[in-house]
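Weekly structure sync, notes
Attendees: PL, DS, HV (note-taker this week)

Item 1: ATP-grasp domain-containing protein
DS walked through the input record. Source organism listed as Streptomyces globisporus. Sequence as pasted into the shared doc:
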Amino acid sequence: MQDYGLSYAASDLLVDSHGRWYFVDCNPAGQYRWLENELPDLGITQALAQLLAGDSERPRRNGLTAAA
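Item 1 (cont.): predicted structure, written out as tokens:
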């Protein structure tokens, strides 16, 4: 995402019947609420709000850091 200057993007991935992962696309205006509805502990909305508010530190959750 850094190469494209993005702070947020929703990525589409597919997994085939052999367990191989494939990257489909990276959408800078992608939807995420469906995922947060299924897994509310992800805190995606909170992390995006922190980025938009200009917090000095990038949001962290479960050892992951939001992209620059």
